[in-house]
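Loading example: each entry is read as two labelled lines plus one structure line.
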Amino acid sequence: MSQQGVIEIADLTKKYSDFVAVDKLNLHIDEGEVFGFLGPNGAGKTTTILMLLGLTEPTSGNARVCGYDPIREPLKVKRIAGYLPEKVGFYEDLTARQNLEYIAALNGLPREDASRKIEELLDTVGLSEVADQKVGQFSHGMQQRLGIADVMIKDPKVAFFDEPTAGIDPEGIEQILAIITNMARKKITVVLSSHQLHQVQRVCTRVGILAKGRLVIEGSVDHLGRDAIGGGKFRIEVQVLQSTPNLISSIKNINGVVNVESSGDLLLISCDEDLRPQIARTVVDSGSLLAQMKIEEYGLEQIYMKYFRES
Amino acid sequence: MSGFMAIFWKELADHFTSKRFIILSLLIYLAGLATIYVAAQNIRSGVTEDTQFIFLRLFIVSGKTLPFSFPLFLSIFIPIVGISLGFDAINSERTSGNLSRLLAQPVYRDSVVNGKFLAGLVTLAILVVSIVAIVAGMGLRMIGVPPSAEEVLRLFAFIFASIIYGAFWMSLAVLFSVFFRRTATSALASIALWIFLFLFMSMIAGVIAGAVVPIDQNSSVELITQNDELYRMISRISPGTLYGETVQVLLMPELGNPSATLMMVSIYTAGMIPSPLPLGQSLLIIWPQLVSLIALTALCFAISYIRFMREEIRAT
């Protein structure tokens, strides 16, 4: 963490009259990371992204994108940062290709480079066949994919995606996530804001949860689980009949078990791996009766819910 | 700079391919041709041996079948064209979700306004120049009298004034498009203001002038002049009046004063028939009107510019 990150945020605050949208946010994102910004609506995700792009002025605090200050040098930031807004729109009377040509021109790309690049990108996002159709006829998913091509056209170092998968069918989501994963492979830093947790979990190397403008927790999904639940990634619920007194301690001795709690005839075991076979053997060996066993994997959803209940 | 040019060219292409623009320009060409036809039919009446500026008469003569002269047509259509070029400049970008995408590109924010404004201005200029050229060409064919050098210069001045007048309405519409979120609202606001100024301003001016300086048939010339001056001062709040006066003076060189009533008075009092003014004198007379139009345009543009530059893109 010592080297300069692609995105550095220090005490970033944004107030709208008496409402605090972003409250002293601190964040560090390294090159090539896929960072997931989580949080309910109105948590300040979009505001943070807008401040990083210099589209909104922070009330106080600092931000750096690749070393540039978005307030002082907005053009330098915009040259290297791509942004896909939540409610993205295109010029409906223009074709997909014309829309991209316009953005390429705004970025000062020479015409020939641009047309080659556009061809390539349309192929990447799977829109080659409809390149010369007017965008007005595009489905939401197609527009969203066009939006990704639009972000990629300037060869960004950082890409901000605001809810890229909202309102898109599962197949479309798969395509979009695949493209994002590919971007990360090309060393493009991706910041993804979303509240669709399953997807974030799949593509993000790190997530941060925002609530009421504050970053309540950040880290990799695995880590978050441990911190949030105070236990391992898995939760195994065991119903034991006629339990013996030393059963709990012998389960605690199984390698990988983090914590055991009992309530009535239920044992709640949290562990790092799926230890059901070992636990079953221990229970039977101790002379108790194993009535049933349920396993739950801790996902982002639980972590998320936990933090929202708290905040 | 590349961003500005890109925006300019795209907006220009948008204007010329939009159905709105095609419909409007067809309508205007049609109106132009109709007036020139009527004018050519009626131009002989009132022309004597020593009538000067016959070519310019083409633009001001109207007939019984169509009681509109060409400048009157323009003074109605130019605001509509100006409004149609500007009313959705900014807010349509916002509602369609293009604005935040556009502003995330490495272009200065003022390039967006400037590019759009200049594209609108060029479109307007092309429309005005082409309609005047068509009318002049048709007229030349119909009456066979070529324009003198001064007439050509006066036509250029007329074109310039018309473009400025259109630019005013366009910048007003752009202003509304920055302030109102919905395109329907900004369109209606612009048109409402236009109708108010066009229909009611002279009425209001008449009422006020009548109340302040009451006149009747036996009033002295002095009183009539006072009443008329007040009336004109008030009605000049409407840019349409400014444009109308400018056009009158430009296309009717014998008119030494933009007010027809006042000219009648001067003929009546001095008993002299006015002789045509040289172009320089005509320009001098309408200079305040032109400058006012330009200033109004610049004012609207400046306000929308500042407002747009300061506006924050918000997460909603």
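The longest helix of chain B spans residues 109-143.
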